[in-house]
Amino acid sequence: MIHQDRECVATHGRPAWKARANSTFPMLVGMRDGRTRWEQLWWQRVKPRRFVLCCIPFFIDDLALGDEVETTARHVVRAIVARSGQATFRVWNEQRDPWVRDTVLKAVETFRPWAEWRSTDLLALSVDARAAGAMAARLHALARQGLIRVRAGEVATPG
Fold first, then answer.
1. Which pLDDT tens digit goes with each residue over 114-147?
2. pLDDT digits 0-9 by tens, 18-35
């Protein structure tokens, strides 16, 4: 995490689709402990002011790997123009135990998710939405054992 004065910026060291990405710009996460929090996201520019998300958001809700957005000239997301059909999960390994990391990855490998580690304790997973329910059940079973905390990325419904 980069700290600049009163701001924190979460970055992606190994974006899922790094080879496709040709642009980065931050999105506002919110305020915490008096600091403005941002997440630097990786994008593929497909048209002027149109971008496809090439990383799995650690903190930004309502976006998933592969979603296409329209932005303002200053790269503020105005609208999600196409959903990718991916579901996002955030998994916290609060014990920072390598065995727990391996256990989580083994538990979900049959779903073939994209994975990005933020740190030793935060993993973002992206999976086809059709497999999301089954993968959620597998992750929640680990959570009930006290190994992890898990949260699905929230997606706003149109309306």
1. 999 988 889 999 999 999 999 999 999 999 999 9
2. 999 999 988 888 888 888
Q: Is the dihedral of CA 112, 87, 55, 68 positive or negative?
A: positive
Residue 72: which region, alpha, beta or left (left: phi > 0; alpha: psi -120 to 50)? beta
| Partners of 43 in the β-ladder | 23, 53
How would you write the chain as a 3-class SS string?
CEEECCEEEECCCCCCCCCCCCEEEEEEEEEECCEEEEEEEEEEEEECCEEEECCCCCCCCCCCCCCEEEECCCCCEEEEEECCCEEEEEEECCCCCHHHHHHHHHHHHHHCCEEEEEECCEEEEEEEHHHHHHHHHHHHHHHHCCCCEEEECCCCCCC
Query: Has this prediction a pTM greater than 0.85?
Result: yes
pLDDT at 3 (0 to 100)? 43
d(CA 55, CA 124): 9
